[in-house]
Amino acid sequence: MRYRIAFAAGAALGYVLGTRAGRERYEQLAKYARQVSHNPAVRNVTETATQQGRVAAGKAVHVVSVKVGDRLPDSVSRRVRAFAGNDRGDDFGSGSGTV
After folding, report:
1. CB 65, CB 84: distance < 8 Å
2. pLDDT (0 to 100) of residue 92
3. Top-confidence residue, 89 or 34
4. Do 83 and 92 touch, CB atoms closer than 8 A?
5. 3-state secondary structure of 83
6. Which of 35, 37, 43, 80 is the most buried (most CB within 10 A)?
7. Is 99:83 a contact under the CB 8 Å cutoff?
8. d(C-alpha 83, C-alpha 25), whole Å
């Protein structure tokens, strides 16, 4: 019960402080976030991390497929293989939803 009360108090305090900051502060933060995301250095780091994640995912697919073998349903296997081979540059989970 103590944790619920602490959570409710924290949520209420966050709401009050958030509403006091108002729309203007929100716009300032959003503008700063856009500037950071469009910075070439940040974009390069993001692209590098994405590529390293895909390489790691490919290795993980191989390890799992060796250990699990044919026990995965075909639909899951196709999705995993499609994701591991995704070189389109889009974000994880995006696309048409079909493989």
Report:
1. no
2. 46
3. 34
4. yes
5. helix
6. 80
7. no
8. 39
Report how far residue 32's alpha carbon sits from residue 6's, in angstroms, rounded to the nearest whole number: 32
Give 99's contacts (C-beta < 8 A, 6+ positions apart): 78, 79, 82
Give pLDDT, residue 96: 44
Closest to 86 in 3D by CA, of 62, 65, 94, 64: 94
Instruction: Count Cβ neighbours within 10 Å for each residue of 77-89 and write b for 16 or more, e otherwise.
Output: beebeebbebeee
The structure tokens listed for 66 are 């060796």
Whole-model pTM over 0.90: no
For 5-71, the three-class secondary structure string (H helix, E strand, C coil) is: HHHHHHHHHHHHHHHHHHHHHHHHHHHHHHHHHCCHHHHHHHHHHHHHHHHHHHHHHHHHHHHHHHH
